[in-house]
Design brief:
Blueprint lengths: L1 E3 L4 E2 L15 E5 L1 H13 L8 E5 L9 H13 L1 H13 L8 E2 L4 H9 L4 H9 L3 E7 L7 H8 L4 E5 L15
Parallel strand pairs: 1-3, 3-4, 4-6, 6-7
Antiparallel strand pairs: 2-5
Helix pairs in contact: 2-3, 2-4
């Protein structure tokens, strides 16, 4: 299994352990990592590499947000990167208590890509038509992405699971990881 982490994160795979299909033929990604997982899967389509399942956990879905939203996010990041990331991580865990999370290097270009990425139904349909089962997991209380918009978008090409009461990390009250 190949897993792609969220923006500025590492070792975030642990949040999705109960859902991950741990086979050599699974590609998975969380939030920004979902974009990278899709791109990786797409790059393998014409090769001899096999992918059976593409798992997208809280995929970075901002295409229903305004350009102004994108500009405000980038401006806040450029003004105070540390404060932006602190608030971003807090929002990922909201409405529940924030847990410790490991960070990695990141760039404003990656944030720009995350915020401006447009998911393409044709690309997803092509991947599906090659025999790759696409699974999307969303939390109804996600304060990062438009979970309802993502649900409506992805349901045409994927099996979509919406966890009621769950945050961006798909945690529900009383289910936070130790």
């Amino acid at each position: 299994m190949k897993f792609f982490s969220g923006f500025s994160l590492k070792n975030d795979q642990r949040f999705f352990e109960p859902l991950l299909k741990k086979t050599d033929y699974t590609v998975a990604g969380f939030s920004y990592g979902a974009i990278k997982a899709l791109e990786h899967t797409e790059s393998l389509l014409g090769s001899s590499k096999r992918v059976d399942t593409l798992q997208l956990f809280s995929p970075a879905f901002f295409q229903t947000k305004s350009l102004q939203f994108q500009k405000l996010q980038l401006r806040a990041y450029q003004k105070d990167e540390a404060l932006y990331l602190k608030n971003f991580i807090k929002a990922c865990f909201a409405p529940y208590e924030q847990e410790k999370i490991s960070h990695t290097s990141h760039t404003s270009e990656e944030l720009q890509e995350l915020l401006s990425y447009k998911w393409n139904l044709d690309t997803l349909s092509e991947i599906s038509s090659k025999g790759v089962h696409i699974e999307v997991y969303l939390g109804s209380e996600d304060r990062i992405i438009d979970a309802q918009g993502a649900r409506e978008f992805f349901k045409e090409v994927a099996t979509v699971t919406l966890f009621n009461g769950a945050n961006h990390f798909l945690q529900r009250k009383g289910e936070e990881n130790e």
